[in-house]
Amino acid sequence: MQHRRQTISLLAKAAAITAILAAGLAGGLAGGLPAAAAETGPVRVGEINSYTGLPAFTIPYRQGWQLAVEEVNAKGGVLGGRKLEVISRDDAGKPDDAVRVAQELVTNEKVDLLAGTYFSHIGLAVADFAARNKVPFVAAEPLTDAITWAQGNRYTFRLRPSTYMQAAMLVEEAAKLPAKRWATVAPNYEYGQSAVAWFKQLLKEKRPDVEFVAEQWPAQGKLEAGPTVQALAAATPEAIFNVTFGADLAKLVREGETRGLFRNRKVVSLLTGEPDYLEPMKDEAPEGWIVTGYPWEQIDTPVHKAFVAAYAARFKDQPKQGSLVGYTTMKAIAAAIDKAGSTDREKVVDALSGLTLDSPVGPVTFRASDHQSTMGAFVGTTTVKDGRGTMKDWRYADGTAYLPSDEAARKLRPAE
Amino acid sequence: MSELVVRDLHRSFGGVQAVGGVSFTLRSGDLLALIGPNGAGKSTCFNLLNGQLRPDSGSVRLDGTELVGLPPRRIWALGVGRTFQITATFASMTVVENVQMVLLSRARRLFGLWRPAAAQFREPALTLLGQVGMAAQADRPCGVLAYGDLKRVELAMALASEPAVLLMDEPTAGMAPAERLTLMALTAGLVRERNLAVLFTEHDMDVVFGHATRVLVLDRGRLIAEGSPDEIRADPRVQSVYLGGEA
Amino acid sequence: MSFLLVQALSGLATAATLFLVSSGLTIVFGVTRIVNFAHGSFYMVGAYAGWSLIERFGGTAAGFWGSVAAAAIAVGCLGAAMEIGLLRRLYRSPELFQLLGTFGVVLVVQDLAAWGWGSEDLLGRRAPGLKGSIDILGQSFPLYDLVLIGLGPLVLALLWALFNRTRWGTLVRAATQDREMASALGVDPARLFTGVLFLGGALAGLGGALQVPREAVTLQMDMAIVVEAFVVVVVGGMGSLTGAFLASLLIGQLQAFGILVFPQITLVLVFLFMAVVLVLRPHGLLGRAEEAPPTAPAAVTVPLAAGRNAGWWALALLAAMAALPLAVGDYALILLTETVILALFAASLHLLIGLGGLVSFGHAAWFGLGAYGAALLVRHLGAPMPLALAGAPLLAGAGALVAGWFCVRRSGLYFAMLTLAFAQIAWSVAFQWYAVTGGDNGILGVWPSPWAAGKAAYYWLTLALCGGALWLLRRAAFAPFGYALRAGRDSGLRAESVGIDVRRFQWMAFVLAGAAAGLAGGLYAFAKGSVFPTLLAVPLSVDALVMVLMGGIQTVAGPLAGAAAFHLLESEVMSLTDWWRLALGLVIVALVLLFPRGIVGFVAGLRGRA
What we know:
Chain B is built from nine helices and ten strands. Chain B is an alpha/beta fold. The model of chain B has no long low-confidence stretch (mean pLDDT about 90). In chain C, helix 9 runs parallel beside helix 11, helix 14 runs parallel beside helix 16 and helix 15 runs antiparallel to helix 21. Chain B: GO terms for molecular function: ATP binding.
């Protein structure tokens, strides 16, 4: 009896495991059903981003590319009549999940190319996957320099201006300030570290007389505002370079204002002018910080106005930085496929290389040398107007001017 | 022949003396009962002997080897077995596996990663279980046994290590009177057969006077009397502090 | 001098928030013995509810403080509801299941909060009348922080009075010391526990609502605070209110001054502190010895069934799985590869939990260490894949050898938190040591040797190595080693008294489990082509726990089924909906309520009854 029971329970275990495996495989197989894209079917783009991990930034981004897809398809699609179709996936904020999802998109969904990602490490993971599987990948938002330089590869292109470019834009302004004693505050990971490193290096090149008197490295999302502000103030810097963003930035601004950290001090701050970060702070947005950003409501070129109007009409919402990036990413993909004249992956890669398109903020070129786009950013000063934060005295800093020469950039990339 | 010599054990807890100057000698063939009212220090005394507690001063020697300061498992390895007042067996294992564990431990085979444990020392374990009348239940999980049966398993586990000295903390607690006498008769038989030295605590005076070869009486941490069951029964001090107190 | 004083005050303000949140956690633990992961969610909901109320009514001082109080009460009700709806049904389940249940609640609340309040960070109003700062020896200090500093001791005093001066408090204290006794006193424990969860929830909610004037309310608040609150509770001693207060003060000061001395240390400081405290003091600063380790799976009395035919079934399953590449596509193979790897990972944790009764909160450390070991060998030494794969379990095993020596000297939750501390330290090394590990950007290009580069080839390799390792683990489980481990779990006292050096076996098991997890990690690295610090991070440790518990801890096959179910569920649901956390959370809660013995236990039970 005893013995039979054990056998039965083992049978049950084996059955349970098999059932689970079978169910999972069925799922995996079912996903594989959309048969290989025929020459006449839609062109399929696999899109991956941290929709549940960072919804505040990725949802506007998604709306941006949705708008672009709709516009492209309304004008007859790509390759003379084929629709552009996007299969979008969440990566849960984890690089290993992103790689799995990329694989699913490529093998099951038979996508012709990949796009998306927000976090730098996820962008890098997908870029590496793209290179290995020889699939074109347009990294939309990740900022890390590595994705086009140290870890660059033939199949990966990046749209948004990199950490280096944005730091270089701000250094140009910072060098004009009289301040000699600088402090830095940046989140404690690669983005913060490389932003500070570039800022220091580039500023010292222009102004050998500056010194950096303090640095703070709060853990991302866990800034201890009071102690950090106090520690910065104690070093009595004349100016501060800030790289924190999101909830950390809001804390820093609030605490800094209360404790008088920003009184008589210039602050130069990365990305803070982007509506994604500026708007949640409402009337408490900092006044007079020199920032990179996106003053969408003040850009009055016809093409940009049309973009804002279309976006507002479609989503009853105002565009954020992410919207612009998402929109331009998908427009670039459509342009590349048309330029390639086919969905052949190698041809698409060749087409992306050196591709120029008109974005809502001006012409953008994916440089053939390092696959970095020349999309720029707006550099200006923050201010509060009608109870909300915005930018003033801004100018568009075209990325071309802030990138190393093709020659120098090629040297930064691994040999192919 | 083994001899456990206890000299002048002291132990206090936060200034309260639990055991104060206990000395006695336990020899092979002894079935020594340690009695005393609740709180007399019996359990503390036991825990000092088996290494679970460390005495403030005093010595416990087994055939000349000092046991004070050794961890329980070393004391066990030197030949001092024990059973617990509240039964402690390995509940997730079967009865026979409990005994096998002790045999494996004694043979220093516990670090084996390959051969299944259930196949090792099964026969000797069954033999031991036969001696305590538990062979029929050998393959039941220990977690479902009746209390009295658990006590028997404990006894088998204690015997499995072939101890020279056996410490039994209330071996019959929680059992029905008839069961108690059976178990103690069994124990007494095994002591004679194997020439063990046994020290046990007990509440049931029938058990004590029926089976002990000698009796120690503990009161407030001190030994107040020692002798044969008849002498103890007749000792007026014992009657006043213990038997009298309870009557 | 004045600077140091103000820095200390800033530390006190941090400490006040920490204390509010961790006091609730420690009270709930003390009485119900439940490790409430959802406590951080209470804090977050408190902040969101507080934000909504303050936006509406917070224009006046009365409105502001009324809103804070209302938010706290609302969250208290949420806590009571969780007790009635979920925890009450779990008091008889193994304590690990309660933990899993509360984790399900965390996932559900995350998505519900996103649905209710949107995903954008919300910056609330400041407290009326307390917007400015005052001058302390020439330094500005926010008025609001001063109020917070006062609030900490005030709440401690009120709680003290509640527990020492009211009948309810006395009963709660009685229940803290002895659950059985409380019910013997004629107290309905269910009502008492509901009250305690209300109190715990309200304290967390209060802590959350009080943050509105200080920082933006975000969806990341829950996990950020709950880990820190656990640290405070453990450092202070589980269940000790004054301990939590003391620990909050210490950690607040540590953070305030730590960043002055070494700004880069922010990531690990509290975990280093916890590790040091636990190594020196087994039960935290003011904790008492636990009468029973909270994690001992008391319900596990069913012997592990060896079964004569188990080997045949396993072989049949292996053969079936080995044949799968002939039938399925590339993506299915990748899913299978990952599932097999995770099965080994889960089984290695099961060795600790199921056999040793040792619940590790940081098991991902060894998985990640294995992955990094392999990746580093490839990147810095150009090692070929086989060598790198051999290095993975060695590095992980070596790490586990060191950490295990400390960890097995503690039991129950203290053990769990010490493993968490080591995992956090390992994580931050991987995260920050940019020159060697590539920091958060990880190590790329860890691809298999050409002969194993095909999806099917790599799957077979994985199957062979994981199958072999699983077989070894299973042999060990049924060998004397596994029995000795169980003996130590069943009754440490008895085990010691029959010559079993329990700690040594636990230490060995820790190393063995670490090495097995390391092998899984190494295989994972090559399957993904890259490694990142997320492979050592808390979420992966939690995933491993979920897998083991989902499968059921009583059986050797459990973790395998659990890993398969969890991974396939997650990957399928994730591609179907953005609300996968909600779905996963609900599945976990349902599982805990309906199948408390896990999948395999449930199926076996069905068959046994039939």
